[in-house]
Amino acid sequence: TRELALRGWTHGDLSPYNVLLHEERLVIIDWPQIVDIIGNPRGPEFLQRDCHNMCAWFVSRGLAVDEEDLFGDLMAVAVSRW
Questions:
Q1: Above 80 in pLDDT, residue 1?
Q2: Which one of 1.20.1560.10, 1.10.510.10, 1.10.1040.10, 3.40.50.720 gives the CATH number of domain 2-80?
Q3: What stretches of 33-82 adopt beta strand conformation (E)?
Q4: Is 66 a residue of the active site?
Q5: Which of 26, 57, 39 lies closest to 10 in space, CA to CA?
Q6: What is the CA radius of gyration of the chain?
Q7: Is 36 a catalytic site residue?
Q8: pTM of the model
Q9: Fewer CB atoms inside 10 A, N or C side of the chain?
């Protein structure tokens, strides 16, 4: 998701079901809802939802992740390109 944020985008419907493992690399699928984080008035909301969906999955498996830190980091990356 950092690579997306560098381009100013977020998936818009990211969940663990849209992340596949292929030859030791993660591949994100299902792109029809891709959102411009800055250009779309609801862009930050979509990014927040993507962060929430992924972090909730990791937390449910006992991993310590901070959704707000992730969101803040990705927003900073997206904004820095402007």
A1: no
A2: 1.10.510.10
A3: 35-36
A4: no
A5: 39
A6: 12
A7: no
A8: 0.90
A9: C
**Region of residue 30 (phi > 0: left; psi between -120 and 50: alpha; otherwise: beta):** left
Distance, in Å, from the CA atom of 45 to the CA atom of 18, rounded to the nearest integer, reads 19
Catalytic annotation, pick one of 30, 36, 69, 73: 30
| Residue % of the chain over a pLDDT of 70 | 100
In degrees rounded to 5, what are phi and psi of residue 27? -125, 125
Q: How many residues does the chain have?
A: 82
Hey, which residues does 19 pair with through a beta bridge?
28
The ranges assigned to domains in the chain are 2-80
- Of 32-36, 41-45, 57-61, the one with minimum mean pLDDT is 32-36
